[in-house]
Design brief:
Length: 447
């Protein structure tokens, strides 16, 4: 569909950001995308590409044109011998996992917590999973093709246009419109997941040991308790095994949690009690599951929420978490919802990757919005960001954060080079919006 539709409201999954673009497009082929680019140029309009809207920020929002690629998701090539697959940019992680890769006995090495998101959106924002020897999703991309603002097709990889490739692997949608992705996969595998618990002190005192014990280690801290739930996850050839209690965990646990947190918006002092109940009676017991890789990777996000996620050098993880706990203890009037999720990734060389040049620890905090209700986050978020900055943190690009060009330019050794590439590819700012202006344009130029 190359004709744009007016009066469409774009809203992200968390319902924290929305916009009303002048026109909303859903192209089905490259030629239609080129026509949309021509139309944007003729009418001097900005254009942003949307995936599934899972990003809890305004990274997509514009009042000009939004281009959605849901109808542009065909498989283009499959290289079974080298375990690679090439597909159009509207392909979702979920479709790959459930419909495409099983046909070829292939699997993703890693994915983010959610699977109903596009691969293009995932890599463009630096989506990550967890594992001491596992990179962010972008590190498993072998080749990209994208259209620049003037309709020129660019192809890049580590062998061809390497510098452009290292910029485009986390390009935030401001270098061009990704049209195809070649993804390095691996033979299909199952994962053996063990769920265990301990105190936060026990976890932090032996954090390096825990991280090295399994391939895909992560843990969650429950604020206002001393409790941690952690997962040791490794590849296995053992038979399938499940300990999940769907009726309690999801049917009752989900609805009850939303109701209890809704009550707590009137009586905030209930939050610590809710956290203790859910930790003690639902999450702290031992569990063991063996299933297809993607079923273990998928993380139930429950209901809409505010969320932010920063990466810090791995060696700073324990100190940062202790500071966060100390702040919560000193500010009992600011209750924090569970969980604080902690994951680990290895260093890479992608220009805007939060893991550029360093093994990293991601610390993710959230506050639910029960039944879509507004929940105050400002004080908690400000304290968290202050701690992350203290420990050399870099914000996840898909998440809402307060940093601008002034704060970001010194966080990334290749930040200025990325900006030069962006300005060269898109001199008229066709792919810019308010988010991009904040992070890539010095204030003196944007005023």
């Amino acid at each position: 569909m190359k004709e744009g539709v007016p009066d469409i409201t774009f809203q992200n999954w968390a319902k924290t950001f929305s916009c009303q673009p002048e026109l909303y497009f859903q192209p089905t082929c490259i030629d239609e995308i080129k026509l949309i680019l021509e139309k944007a140029k003729e009418n001097d309009k900005k254009i942003r590409v949307s995936g599934k809207g899972h990003s809890p920020s305004d990274i997509v929002c514009t009042t000009d044109y939004i281009l959605n690629l849901d109808l542009f998701d065909n498989v283009l090539e499959v290289d079974e011998e080298n375990c690679r697959i090439k597909f159009e940019a509207g392909m979702t992680v979920k479709k790959l996992n459930q419909e495409i890769l099983p046909k070829y006995n292939m699997a993703l090495t890693i994915q983010g917590s959610a699977s109903d998101i596009t691969v293009a959106g995932s890599i463009s924002t630096g989506t990550h999973g967890t594992g001491k020897n596992i990179g962010i999703m972008s590190t498993y991309i072998a080749e990209l093709e994208f259209l620049t603002a003037d309709g020129k097709m660019m192809k890049c990889s580590r062998e061809e246009n390497k510098e452009l490739f290292l910029a485009a692997l986390c390009g935030l949608g401001c270098l061009g419109i990704i049209t195809s992705i070649t993804l390095q996969c691996e033979p299909h595998f199952k994962l053996h997941q063990k769920q265990l618990s301990c105190t936060l002190d026990e976890m932090l005192e032996n954090l390096d040991g825990h991280i090295c014990k399994s391939e895909y280690f992560r843990f969650c801290y429950f604020p206002h308790t001393d409790g941690v739930v952690y997962w040791e996850v490794d590849k296995t050839t053992c038979p399938m095994k499940s300990s999940a209690n769907w009726f309690w965990d999801y049917a009752i646990g989900y609805h009850l949690l939303q109701f209890l947190y809704w009550i707590s918006t009137f009586f905030p002092s209930l939050v610590p009690i809710i956290n203790v109940i859910y930790y003690r009676f639902l999450h702290s017991s031992y569990r063991e599951d063996i299933d297809d890789y993607y079923k273990i990777f998928d993380f139930e996000c429950l209901f809409v929420q505010y969320v932010t996620d920063w990466a810090i050098p791995r060696e700073n993880a324990a100190k940062a978490l202790r500071d966060l706990v100390s702040w919560l203890e000193a500010n009992p009037d600011t209750p924090a919802h569970f969980p604080v999720e902690v994951r680990f990734t290895k260093a890479d060389d992608i220009f805007l990757s939060p893991c550029y040049g360093r093994d990293s620890c991601y610390i993710n905090i959230l506050k639910y919005r029960p039944y879509g209700k507004y929940v105050e986050i400002e004080k908690y978020w400000t304290a968290y960001e202050t701690i992350m900055l203290k420990y050399d943190g870099r914000p996840h690009w898909a998440k809402a954060h307060k940093l601008t060009y002034k704060g970001l330019q010194n966080m990334y050794p290749e930040f200025q080079r990325f900006c030069e590439i962006r300005e060269k590819l898109d001199p008229d700012g066709r792919f810019m919006n308010n988010y991009m202006q904040r992070v890539f344009v010095p204030k003196s130029k944007s005023d």
